[in-house]
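Sat 14:20. Reprocessing the chain from the morning session after the first attempt stalled halfway. Input below, unchanged.
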Amino acid sequence: MNWRIGRWLMFGCLAMAAGGGGAWAQAAGPLGLFAEHADVGAVLHAGSVAYDAAKHSYTISGSGENVWAAADAFQFVWKKMEGDFTLTADISILGQGGDPHKKAMLMARQSLDADSAYADVALHGVGLTSLQSRDAKSADTHEIQSNISAPKKLRLQKYGDEFTMWLAGEDGKFRFAGGSMRVPLTGTFYVGLGVCAHNKDAVETAEFSDVAVEVGPTVAEQLGSLETVAVSSTDRRVTYVGSTRVGSPRFAQDGASLVFGEGGQIWRVPSAGGKPEVYAEARKDHGVSPDGTLGFSVICSGSGCYIYVVPTAEGEMRRVAGGCCPIWSPDGKTIVFMADRDGHFDIVSVPTAGGDERWLTTEGVNSGAEFSPDGQYIYFNSDRSGVMEVWRMNPDGSQPVRVVNDGSNNWFPHVSPDGRFLAFLTAPGAGLRFPASFEPAVLRVMTLADGRIRTIANLMAGPWTLSELPWSPDSQRIALVSYQGVRVGERAP
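Finished this time. Tokens:
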């Protein structure tokens, strides 16, 4: 469904968005669209707001140490709202110098408490633009960094619990800037503009012009955002936004680029962003063997899906098994895959050179198999305990052990190349629907040495959010795809 932008009602009248069905907020009073302003959190210097009705602009000055972590400090001009909205403005940060991460923000927050849940689109002094959120009171802040620097226009959109960032360049055309964050704001909440100096001893100023607020339901375009997330900082960085749904991301062997699927083809793009190119090994959609000589091709027809081995140089495909989601053993001698036999999903292995299949699981629904880097274990997810959990077993299927045991429905385990971490998706409401539908999920990482688990991303996930080998070669980042504009439980095509 295409994104439709109605006529923006600026200041002084009330209208309906053309084709959008939403009413525009009325401009009235000394602060125009907004009702009041205040400093949020602990600041040493009081902030200020000047509204110019003739220019339809706000000049906001704010102090404050940061809008980050578990508490904020900044100047905020706001109005109370309910339901869905879009907030749009041109933003210019005034003055030279200051902290490079001083920021001007379009924001929605549950309350004026310093540790309130919130979501914002933040333009930093250095041009970095990011979608930030704290999804619960006193929780940590996370962010998704756009690959667009210093945009001319910025937009924050709320669609249910989902917040997205839209940016426009010199042509004035808004484009989805990648990623979405789910923040459950309830009842009446606060919507407005903010400035933070990122220095408790300083005051910084920004001008917001052509500010507009659309209230009521919005039409959300369904898109996928290819991203990487840093395990240490949890910062997410947008690499590419697809014109259709993208999926199955992984780092290329050089670590400098990502390989992903879109529109029935396999593409490669620099991990920092750039123009994607059709991958030269398009048939080998699950990577190459450890020695680089073979690739996979999975071909599905009315009779089922079949796994073929394809030489990376020219050569003929050779069918080795019937199934999907294949992975290599670290020594390249074995292929492990998921097989559906009469509606029962299990994990099966077969020699790369061809031979008899060996069923590694027979109890419950089993999928998401992946070898540990040393080849000692196969990690997988299984519902044999009554909920979907992460397990591991020996390569011959013996001695299965539950690794994650919190009853949260955990999927798709991936061990980092250095063997220290286990990444997996948690979707508490998904049950067995998750592999075929879109669900709210969190990406979590377990430190294998002590079993400590922490959340590094909150997103709308689908069956292609994590692919085989999503870790960067240095074990610092994870490639993922998040989805925007999809309904919970909607079946993925």
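The longest strand covers residues 204-215.
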